[in-house]
Amino acid sequence: MDCLFCKIVSGDIPSTKVYEDDKVLAFKDINPLAPVHILVIPKEHIDSAAAVTAENSAVIAHIFEVIAKIAKEQGIDKDGFRVVSNCGENGCQSVKHLHFHILGGRKLDVTMG
Length: 113
Ligand code: 5GP
Ligand code: ZN
What we know:
With 113 residues, this protein is α+β, with helices and mostly antiparallel strands. It is built from 2 helices and 5 strands.
């Protein structure tokens, strides 16, 4: 499949990994919008939050466990952070492989859009 994040999972495109297990990969965003900007993705290709089903949703719970672990490791768990998943055209999703942005390390803007 011609998918940028599948190519990052396979190693065809390099990334700066911060966490990996058999189901999930986390890596630094190439264009960080905050001092900590990490993307967490399922290794299995899921198009977006709109494509989550009873069959594939277990990985989402696991991703949120991983997010909490990464937040602690990055030292942003106490001050707080934001988790964002852009979906589809109106959500301004640019890469069509489900991903969760972890943004932290500074006070973020209050705007949601
Ligand atoms: P979206 O706009 O789809 O929510 O987020 C896609 C994110 O992927 C953007 O924040 C963008 O900077 C990041 N990104 C795009 N291409 C690459 C890449 O090749 N490597 C990494 N590490 N991040 C990327
Ligand atoms: Zn993919």
